[in-house]
User: Fold this.
Amino acid sequence: MTPFFLDKFGNASSLHSFGRDARGAMEQARKSVAALINAEPREIVFTSGGTEADNMAVKGIAMYKGRLKGHIITSKIEHHAVLEPCIFLKRYGFELTEVPVSTDGLVDPADVEKAVRDDTVLISIMTANNEIGTVQPYREIAKVAKAHGVPFHTDAVQAIGKMPIDVKADGIDMLSMSAHKFHGPKGVGALYVRKGTEIEPIIHGGGHERGMRSSTENVPGIVGFGKAAEIAKRDMGPVTQKVMRLRDRLIEEIPRLIPRAHLNGHPTKRLVNNANFRFEYIEGEALILQLDMLGIAASTGSACSTSSLEPSHVLLAIGLPHEHAHGSLRLTLGRENTEEDVDYFLAHLPGVVSKLREISPFNSETPMPAGGGGSCSV
Ligand code: PLP
Assistant:
């Protein structure tokens, strides 16, 4: 990326040699991104990230040729980047069905099929969930969509680079990606749009990206995205094997080392790099802060450190009571993590959990109250 910040600073739309250099590098990146999902380069529209790609897919399909009504099917556990555009469209007259998920976080393709109506304009179900890691039966859902002639979009932001995806064989019409989820730079992503899909641009202007997304292209970001795609494709087999081994150690050893620790998400149909646990009697935010002091960066489904006291909609959708949804810890691994990292983590986690349980008002001897125990102050 560095040369494209410095001496190769051309605008990819300019005709001079600096511009042509930038355009060449951008088109090379488009080929690499397309190759990762078996798409054609011209089916890749670069965006500012996964959120914009999701917005483009949902609003761009729904509002095709000025349409202002219709029915959209999505799931209860989509990322906000899909759910919020759906809610936005509801305000303008669209109708929405959010299909439920099992306690493992799986969408049942039969539920999607049951929800299809004559006026359904879009089915948008994520490839894999960002919090609990569950991988959806997206190929079966794509078949349902195809059988009913409805475009199928999948938010693959968490799945790209971690599992092989073939948009042609899998029957996907639109797919969202974000570079920073697989070691690329932040602030760049793409929407794959199958040739012939009837979609409207949502950002209008000078006609960049074949008119699908105006604005001067982020050349260094796109070059970094292309490189990350190239490396992900090259290394996918060995890297996923390694990361999966580390994940499986977490999944096996945490419940062995810590009583009343439960895995969230599907035991096997899950992202290779994701382990998500809930610990009874523990507030997730407190856990994150304690781990941070040990140099361990993790996250929680709970949003109570920010402006909202609501626990994650994903954890509620899999049927967890509020107090359990607040006690969740999301662990994600990358290609640079090592067995030693996992050893270090497992050596410290039990002590942190028991320390927090000692000061919890709901310790193991005290039964948790039914409902309303989701306090943010442990
Ligand atoms: N979709 C999913 C499943 C995500 O996990 C994320 C980011 O965490 C996004 C969309 C949004 O991507 P971005 O941050 O690139 O806008």
Remarks:
- Residues 2-232 form a domain with the Aspartate Aminotransferase; domain 2 fold (CATH 3.40.640.10).
- Residues 302-307, 367-378 have pLDDT under 50 and may be disordered.
